[in-house]
Design goal:
Organism: Streptomyces antioxidans
Family: Belongs to the carbohydrate kinase PfkB family.
CATH topology of the largest domain: UDP-N-acetylmuramoyl-L-alanine:D-glutamate ligase
CATH superfamily of the largest domain: Ribokinase
Order of helices and strands: EEEHEHEEEHEHEHEHHEEEHHE
Number of strands: 14
Radius of gyration: 18 Å
GO cellular component, one term: cytosol
Keywords: ATP-binding, Kinase, Nucleotide-binding, Transferase
InterPro entries: 1-PFruKinase, PfkB_dom, Ribokinase-like, Tagatose/fructose_Pkinase
Number of helices: 9
Strand order of the largest sheet: 5-4-1-8-9-10
């Protein structure tokens, strides 16, 4: 079972349009609403693979009630913590060439009591969890050290924990030695305080995060592939993707694939890359099912192309 923690969940509404024109009245060719937030997406990907997952998250207002209902329809147990503010709604506008414009709301302000209630909800459900995945930005009202406290409590309970966040929240949590951290290229560069131009520079940055406390680093490099750096070495994975429909949630799908495959080593990296590649071929923030995966299209190697120049993010 994979337990996920999403301190700032959302309803994600995606509109597909022929082209984005500022100031115009546009008609969508398709639209969908999905339960959102990075940890929620991890739960959705785990559930799509037929495995058990529990999502811990604060829920407020009619938006929170709809989010809980949508999770239940996907077979995900929502361990909701009631909060006074309303769950946020995010908007994505997708164009046929893969261009995605996102409008993300700030979300509710959590009180100290509500923040503690989320930590307590994790404690009461941690038994039997193979992994805890803590994902996303922190809502207003939570200090950057909140994730560090969560990692510390998870380890005291004997659980393995994967952390997907950025900025001060990531930096503060490293001292508690999360088992896996999962930055993208931009977040990895931010964490080490310098731009990263090549795959080799990304490897060095991942090694620095390990030096600061991360036991393993799973780094998404967008179209360039993914890196896994752990105590056994560094590995690089890529996959063939012919057409990108939406990259929303692709990194979350990758983390789900990595954890579902054991959360360590090259085999888990293959699963991560396959899940990420499948996710970008789907609309909105849809998560891949086993039928969408093509592990044969994935190549992993410890002979990393250190001089490869990283592409600009889409």
């Amino acid at each position: 079972m994979i337990l996920t923690v999403t301190p700032n969940p959302s309803l994600d509404r995606t509109y597909e349009i022929p082209a984005l024109e500022r100031g115009a009245v546009l008609r969508a060719t398709a639209d969908r609403v999905d339960p959102g937030g990075k940890g929620v997406n991890v739960s959705r990907a785990v559930a799509a693979a037929g495995q058990r997952t529990v999502a811990v998250l604060p829920l407020g207002g009619p938006e929170g009630a709809l989010l809980a209902r949508l999770l239940g329809e996907l077979g995900i147990e929502a361990a909701g913590v009631p909060v006074a503010g309303s769950t946020r709604v995010n908007i994505s506008v997708a164009e046929p060439d893969g261009t995605l414009t996102k409008l993300n709301a700030g979300g509710p302000v959590l009180s100290a009591a509500e923040a503690e209630a989320v930590l307590e909800a994790v404690r009461t459900r941690v038994e039997g969890a193979d992994w805890i995945a803590c994902c996303g930005s922190l809502p207003r009202g939570l200090a950057p050290e909140w994730y560090a406290e969560l990692v510390a409590r998870a380890h005291r309970a004997g659980a393995r924990i994967a952390l997907d966040t950025s900025g001060p929240s990531l930096t503060a949590a490293l001292r508690e030695r999360p088992d896996v951290v999962k930055p993208n290229a931009e977040e990895l560069a931010q964490a080490v305080g310098r731009p990263l131009a090549t795959v080799g520079e990304a490897v060095k940055a991942a090694e620095e995060l390990r030096g600061l406390g991360a036991r393993a680093v799973l780094a998404s490099l967008g179209a360039d592939g993914q890196l896994l750096v752990d105590e056994s070495g560094a590995y690089f994975g890529t996959a063939r993707v012919t057409a990108v429909r939406s990259n929303v949630g692709a990194g979350d799908a990758s983390l789900a694939g990595f954890l579902a495959a054991g959360g360590s080593g090259p085999a888990a990296l293959v699963s991560a890359v396959a899940h990420g590649a499948a996710a970008v071929r789907l609309p909105g923030s849809a998560m891949p099912t086993p039928a969408d995966l093509d592990p044969s299209a994935v190549t992993t190697t410890s002979d990393i192309p250190l001089d490869r120049v990283l592409k600009e993010p889409a």
